[in-house]
Amino acid sequence: MKKKSARLRVSKKSKSSKKNRFNWSLSFGNLVAVFSLIAVITSFFLVKFVFAKSADIVLSTPKNSSPTNNAALDTYNFQYSWTAVGSSFPVTYFFEISNHPDTNLSGEFKEPIGGLSPSLRNLSTNSVDNMIDLDGVYYWHVKALSNDVVPSLWSNTTKVSLSTRPPKPVNFAPNNNSVLNFNTCNDFYNLKFSWQDLTSLNTPVSYTLEFSMFPEIYDPATSRDCQPGESPAIEGCYLPGTPKPVVGSFKDVSITMSGLENHIINSPLQLGGDYYWHVRTVYKDLTRSHNSSEWSDAYKLTINPGFDPQSCFVTPTPTLPI
What we know:
The structure is a single chain. 13% of the residues lie in helices and 25% in strands. The protein is of the alpha+beta class. Among the domains are: 64-162, Sandwich (Immunoglobulin-like); 171-215 and 250-313, Immunoglobulin-like (Sandwich). A five-stranded mixed beta sheet has the order 9-15-14-11-12. The longest helix is centred in the N-terminal third of the chain and has 29 residues, at 28-56. The chain starts with 27 loop residues before the first helix and ends in a 9-residue tail after the last helix. Mean pLDDT is 83; it is low at 1-26 and 45-53.
């Protein structure tokens, strides 16, 4: 028996009818095709709607938390942190740091520090350990990223200064180029040297004070050992094996006072003449990579005694009992 198939049939009953009438018959196969077409069209517009909505979503901009702007740090052991960006989409962060604050049209630094880990472009948390191990001034910012929505703008640029060396002190007294006329021993006894007090730093410090009768500063690039027949006093050379001064120290040190706890000390000078003095700060934590500051600017002092000051410092010979 021949199987009949459902089909759509249209027929006109009569040419003479006032109105054309059509008889419609819809097969099951046609119904499936129609509904499938509707489903495809609906899915297309639904996907387009979802993607359009995602493309319209812009992640909020992170705010830099720490270090704060213009912070001055004396350690490399710290973290950069910023506010977390909340979103229903997965979010990562792009961290960037530079020696210069200038940015290009996209907001990135024009001269980012090279050699940084690629992971800094895909951070899963809102903080990162400091990766800089060189003193200087740096600028940093961060942005939020997501594969599903528009990335945020860059955060405001934050400036941070790193200096693991203690700060260079400033000489206070006696003033530079002072000329002191001494007439009694008390003038020598009462002379004091002072400089900027830096004991309020987070890391404990002491001071080293140097005196010289000559202003020249030791520079290893221009210093040399004496050749046979040469004299340190004449040629300014160093006898082979002789310990050389610390870089930045006076070339010919007369007096060194180390481990000073106070920024005001009694004068060790016992003779008249021209003197040059400077001081530096020293971290007591000797494990630090840079535990000494630069030397302060050298000050000149001239002492003119109107008498022989040696008598002021001669220790009397004790008298033995008979």
